[in-house]
Amino acid sequence: MSHDRFVFLFVAIFVLLLSSCRGPIVSPFSSGPPPGPRSYAIYYGEKSPAPALSGVDWAIVQDNYPPGKNGRTRYFAYISMGEIDPGTRIAKDVSRSPGGLESVTLGKNLFWNSRIADIRKKSFRQALLMQIKRDTKRGFGGIFLDTLDSPLEYGRTHPRQAAGIRRAMKSFIETVHASYPTLHIVVNRGFGLLPELAPFVSGVLYEDFCSRYDEVGKHYVMVPAGEREKFLRDISRARTHNPALVVLALDYDDPRRPDLSYPCARLARKEKFLHYVSDWTLTRSVPGPPVGWTGE
């Protein structure tokens, strides 16, 4: 027997003996993705959210709040990627650039008094990246990119003026992921683009999963099942590109009479989504169905 064959046989016998004593040796490549969060919450109130959110795994908050210090909760800083809200640091940064806010404005969101923003513009991208840098330095373990639907809807209604906007949105998120590889990124909706974004994000917030706030009628209503089925197909496609993609289902309901959203909890469990219910201002959590509730 040659020396090399003897060494190989010795190593093989040693590994077998070791595995019989300590259990099977498992390859790190066969263990699958690490377990994701089991709970989440969103809070946009004025008081510090840290005490109320210390019991959840993921917490999405306004980025002017300091992230909590407990080890369990990962805090996500809110950043509007599709709109610019007045008075924010991003608005101030863009206003100081050549052309100011008007140069990056695609339209207006009258309900929120915000500007639909053009992610193709360098000044807006730089302002977003500066905010992300500030948030990571302050200890946020994730960012929440909101309002993706606004530029996507603009692209649907203005296809010529919006040429390249989808590509620019994907490019921006790729840049953030490459610059901060350990930072968790969650996007809000953007389902038409989600399959392309999935490899670069940790999760998606499915806002208005089952119940929502009617901004015109100013009351809470159920989401049509047909609308939900369409978006569920988009999520299924996205998960082929990222099987570990976390889906956070968010519904809205009246805290004084929360029974409208009771069926939503069951639907979320069926889809294996994490579920959270709040009022439309995202300052009050809404209790779920009582134990034993059957829908009757």
- Note the total helix count: 9
- Give the strand tally: 13
Strand portion: 15-25%
Give the % helix.
Answer: 25-40%
Cα-atom Rg, whole angstroms?
23 Å
Using the alpha-carbon principal axes, give the shape.
Answer: globular
SSE topology string: HEHEEEHEEHEHHEHEEEHEHE
The largest beta-sheet arranges its strands as 1-2-3-7-8-9-12-13
Summing up helix and strand content along with how strands pair, one would put the structural category as alpha/beta
Please give a quick description of this structure.
The protein is an alpha/beta fold. It has nine helices and 13 strands. Strand 8 (184-188), helix 7 (194-197) and strand 9 (203-207) form a beta-alpha-beta unit.
Defining traits:
296 residues, alpha/beta, eight-stranded parallel beta sheet, three-stranded antiparallel beta sheet, 13 strands, disordered N terminus
Plain-language structure description:
The N terminus is likely disordered. The chain has nine helices and 13 strands. Strand 8, helix 7 and strand 9 form a beta-alpha-beta unit. The chain is globular, with a radius of gyration of 23 Å. The strands form three sheets. It has an eight-stranded parallel beta sheet, covered by helices on one side. Helix 3 packs antiparallel against helix 4. The longest helix has 20 residues. The protein is of the alpha/beta class and 296 residues long.
SSE inventory with pairings:
Blueprint: H1 3-22, E1 40-43, H2 50-53, E2 58-61, E3 74-80, E4 83-84, H3 89-95, E5 105-109, E6 114-117, H4 122-137, E7 142-146, H5 149-157, H6 165-179, E8 184-188, H7 194-197, E9 203-207, E10 211-214, E11 219-222, H8 225-241, E12 246-252, H9 262-271, E13 274-278
Parallel strand pairs: 1-2, 2-3, 3-7, 7-8, 8-9, 9-12, 12-13
Antiparallel strand pairs: 4-6, 5-6, 10-11
